[in-house]
Amino acid sequence: MTDPNAVPHPVQAVVLAGGQGSRLRPYTDDRPKPMVEIPGTGTPIIGHQLSWLAAEGVTDVVISCGHLADVLQKWLDTADLPVSVTTVVETEPLGRGGGLKYAAAHLPHPDRPWYATNGDIWTRFSLRDMADFHTERDALATLALARPRIPWGAVQTDGFGRITDFIEAPPSTFEINAGIYVFSPGFADLLPERGDHERTTFPHLARERRLAGFPIPQGSYWRAIDTAKDLTEAAKELAAHGR
């Protein structure tokens, strides 16, 4: 039975897809980063994201475009999309915070919570669980937290300085901002018109104890597609897990 007092899960989201993706060249010479295909899937990163958002109950997505926006818009016009998509284009760079604010102004339900994700994230976990976590902590903003694997092998030593084991690509001991968010209504008002919200809005909310961190569940897939090596690794991981 549905709880009549339960806060509804977000049905709208923003995808930040305006970056130049310089570290992914030459793949991004003729397309924005979210339009780069993960080898073996035949689908660009943005396609995987829209499918995931739809599976999590999202019906409306605003995509913030910038670099080679027309390439992304043409794909959206011809693709069979699982959600309703609106695109907005920054005529000049606004920074991540400014871009988020600009895109949020085009969400269909300004009085309801919303998700946001960076356009280069390929992941799968329950956004509904993250939204519940956000609500339970009365947060104004909640960040998904990931533990990426260190790209080098690590060693373990004992108390006498003797090496006892080698560990290939271990998880980091630190959690990082995974680039996926839940925001309450009114959060957009705190974003800068220009600049980076991670240096302005987020520290302010952290001091007020209104910023929460949701650890991505162990075993859930998460990867930021930032370099050509990330593409290769993502393809291997997806093939290994049959995703």
Brief synopsis:
The protein has 243 residues and is of the alpha/beta class.
Please, what is the average pLDDT?
84
Radius of gyration: 19 Å
Classify the secondary structure makeup into a structural class: alpha/beta
Helix content: 25-40%
Strand order of the largest sheet: 3-2-1-4-9-6-10
Give the distance, in angstroms, between the N- and C-terminal Cα atoms.
33 Å
Major sheet size, sense and barrel closure: 7 strands, mixed
> Topology as H/E string?
EHEHEHEEHEEEEHEEH
Please provide the count of β strands. Answer: 11
**How does the overall form come out from the CA principal axes?**
globular
Q: Please give the count of helices.
A: 6
Bin the strand percentage.
15-25%
Low-confidence residue ranges: none
What does this structure look like?
- There is one protein chain.
- The protein is 26% helix and 24% strand.
- It is built from six helices and eleven strands.
- The chain has a seven-stranded mixed sheet with strand order 3-2-1-4-9-6-10, sandwiched between helices. Strands 5-11 form a two-stranded antiparallel sheet. Strands 7-8 form a two-stranded antiparallel ribbon.
- The two termini are 33 Å apart.
